Amino acid sequence: MADKPSPTNETGDIQSTLQQHFGFSELLPGQQAVIQHLLDGHSAAAIFPTGGGKSLCYQLPALMLSGVTLVISPLIALMKDQIDALGKRGIKAQRLDSSLDAGEYREVMRQLRDGELRLLYVAPERFNNERFRESMRPIRISLFAVDEAHCISEWGHNFRPDYLKLAGFAREFNAERILALTATATPAVLDDICRLFAISPEHAINTGFYRPNLKIDTTIVDAAERDNALLSALRKNTPAAAIVYVTLQKTAETVARMLADNGFSARAYHAGLKPDVRNQIQEWFMSADTAIVVATIAFGMGVDKSNIRAVYHYNLPKSLENYSQEIGRAGRDGQASICRMLVCPDDLNVLENFIYGDTPDKAALLSLVEALFSLGETFDVSLYTLANTHDIRPLVLRTLLTYLELGNYLKGGTPFYAHYQFKPLLDFQAILARFEGERRAFLAGLFHQASKARTWFSIDLDQAAATLNTTRERIVRALDWLGEQQLLEVKVAGIRHRYQRLNPPDSLETLAEDLYQRVLAREQAEIHRLQQVLDLVTLDGCQTNALAAHFGEQRTQACGHCGGCLRGKSELPPRHTTVISEDILRAAFTLQQEQADVLTSPRLLSRFLCGISSPQISRNKLSKHTLFGSLENVPFAEVMAQIEQSR
Length: 647
Hints:
The longest helix has 30 residues, at 508-537. The radius of gyration is 27 Å and the shape is globular. It is an alpha/beta fold and 647 residues long. It is built from 28 helices and 19 strands. The chain has a 7-stranded parallel sheet with strand order 3-4-2-5-6-1-7, sandwiched between helices. Strands 8-13-12-9-11-10 form a 6-stranded parallel sheet, sandwiched between helices. Strands 14, 15, 16, 17, 18 and 19 form a 6-stranded antiparallel sheet that branches. α1 crosses α3 and α26 crosses α28. β17 and β18 form a beta hairpin.
C-alpha cells in the first residue's frame, strides 16, 4: 500500500455527510468507528451481521476522500443495486462486469480517467485482466474496499483463490487504505483477514451476530412431508415477502411450481436462468410485499429488502456460515421474522457429493505437477485446457495453482489474452492524421503488424512488441485508448495465465502427495462444516446462542424463542439409503474396464456412480450413461468403501 495518508476529516463532517447525502440522522452500531479509522488513514475491518450497514462504511468515506473508492465484490446484484441507489442520491458510481458491452465499458473507463467517479465496483477476477490493470495504474485509489472478505481465508467456508491476491494488488496500485467487510467471519477467519490485509486488530470492528428479532427454528421432517410442512408454515403466518432456499436448480423449479399451484405468489431463481430473467425476478421480488422466491444460494447476496418476514430452508444449508448469511436477509427493518429450517437427513447425500466432487484423484494431481514443471522457467497456460486435460474442476485447479504459489514453487504473473483483434472505425490514414511524431510512427508500425481477415485485423502482441522494440503493455494501452476514442473496436479472447518457476520440488511425487493431503483436509473440513449444521439441529440448549458463539460472540442468557429454547433437544432420524446391488457393481466394473482412461480409480468410479460430474466425464459424455448417478441416494463414503472391498 501507499504510505499512510494524513487524517482527513472530523466526526462532525461524518454527520453532515451522512445527513446530506444519505438522509440518515445517525449511524448504526460500529459504523462510526470503522469510518473514523478509515478517515484517520488506517486500514480497517467491519464484521457486521447481514443487514448491519457494511456498505455505508465505504460509501460515506468515498465522498470524503480525494481519490476513487474501488469496491471489490463477487456479487453483480449488489453492484447493480448499490449503483442505482447511489445514482438516485446524486453520487457517481459505476461497475465493470461481464454484462457491459464495449461502448459501456469505454464510457466507464472515461469517467474513471476523468475523475468523475466516486466509486467503482469490480469483481475480484477483474484484476486478472491486463487491460484493466494497465488502466488502473495512473488512478489514485484512496480506498480499496473488499466485500465478502472471508473469501480470503483458505479455511473459511467460501475460499476463493483470487481473493488471496487482492492484498498484493492493493499494494501494486498504491491503495491508500483497505477496508475488509464480511458478515460471516469466525475468530480464526478474522485473524486471517487481518493478517493478510495488514489490518491492526484494534481497527477490526465486530458488532456481534445476535439479532433479537430473528426467531430461529429447526423442524425435523420426512422428505415425503416436506412440501406440506412448508405450506403449513406459510399459511400459518400473515402473507409477506419470503425466501425459500433449496440446494438444486431443479428443486427450485418444482417447489416454486408447487407453491404457485397452492395460491402463493412464488417464482424460482437460480444460476441456470438467463441474466435478464434473473434481473426481472429480483426486481419483482423487491417491489412486491408478498412475493416468495424459491432460490439456490445464487439469490439474496446484496439484495437490500428490509421487510423480508421469513427465510425458509427447504434443504439443509451447507454450513453455519451460509446459514447465518441467508437468515440474515430476514427482518432488516428490525421487525420480528421467522427463520425456519426443514431438516431432512436425506439432503446429506447431495451436499456431501458437492464436497467430494471437488477432490481430484491423486493421479490427476501427479499428472498436473508433472506437466507444470516440464514447461520451463517461464510459461503460460490455459486454465480451461489444464482442467480438461487433468480432470480437475476449474475452481479447484485455481486453488491448486494458488497453493503452488504460496509454497514458493511458482510465481503468477499478469494474465493476458492470447488473441487481440480490432476493426478500424475510421480509415487508417484518418486515424494516423490525428497524431504526430513518434506516436504516429508507433501507431503506423502497429497497424502494419496486423493481418486482416474479412473485416477484423488480428495482431500477435508479443511479436509486434519485439518488432517495434516496445512493450506489450504499451500496445495494450494504445489499443484500449483507441477503442475508448471510438477509433477502433477491440475484441480479446483466449485468456492465458503466466507463471515463473521459482523452486522446483525435490520430488514431484512428494509434491503431488502433499497437494492430495491438502485437498483431502479441505474435504474433511467441509464435511465437518456440514456436521456443525446437524449439531445445531440436535443441540440441547439455546440454538441462537450456539450460533452466536460460532462467530465469537458469547451470550449468557438464552434467547427464549428459538427451537432449542421452546422444544428442547431434537433427535435426528437416520437417512434413507439405497442398497448397492451386485448387478450395479458388476456393470460398474465392466464400464471401468471400457473407460480405463477416465474411471481410473475407486474414487473416480464412486463419483461417477453418485452422479458427480468432472471435466473428463462431461467430455466423454459419460453423464448420459444409465449408470451415472445410479447410486446418488447412497452416501459417497459407503459407495467408495464397497467398491474398494469388491475389487
